[in-house]
Request: fold
Amino acid sequence: MQPLHVKAPAKINLFLRITGKRPDGYHDLYTLMCPLALYDTLTLSMGGKGIIVVCDHPSVPEDASNLAARSAQLYLETISAGGAPPVSGLTIHIDKKIPVGAGLGGGSSDAAAVLVALNDYFGQPLTNQALMALGTRLGADVPFFILGGPALGTGIGDRLQPFPHLTPWTALLVYPNEVVSTAWVYKNLNLRLTKDEKKLSKFHFDGRLFNVDEHLVNDLEPVTERAFPVVSAIKRLLLAHGAAGAMMSGSGSTVFGLFADPERAISVCTALCDNQQNKNWTLYVADMLI
Reply:
């Protein structure tokens, strides 16, 4: 077969409220997620023996713990149980552009891309709902990337409702090259300190447009900011350069600024890149995929 080439987009959380802690230790949340035109590229090649992952990023595991490898294993086991002929081997090459441990969902997006690509290759034996159910077993964000497009998420983020009411902002992403453990952030989250007087934790959009001033909030941000004060510094810098709003995505450490004018976002990106004080940061400009 010819290799399969698939793109896996990043995402940002435009709204992330933690609404409670579950008996299983996970947290219930209410979030608005949107994919971005910043991609990892995956190449899947059938053949050989076993599932092999190849990636030149030093922080990406190339063994069975890789989420893309786990995704492939789960999919192949599922269709094999349904009567499909077994696959002897698969190699997954990952060209990594989404930073690792950055709150942009790169690993989950890679896993979703593998599920969708393999399902297409085998003639779509599984429905989208079935793929999303598999994705939930891999990670809370995986079903979102299978759904595609902006969505409101509840539960652990896996109960999704498409959200078509976004205006086309351009995001300037600033990754300070600080890897943040999502598990650590949730472990250190104090729900009593997540009260934001300006925003409702159970706000229902009811067809209204997302409003940057009213809805841009992330309950995980204060936790990450205490350990990584650079997050606060980047937010202030983006706002000072004209962003309509700025916030940390997910558990961090990436901070994004929203710009109505793509050219302005590019101009600010250039200025920040040229500033020698920011030499440890990695910056991206990416449009929302709405």
About this structure: Residues 163 and 183 are 27 Å apart (CA to CA).
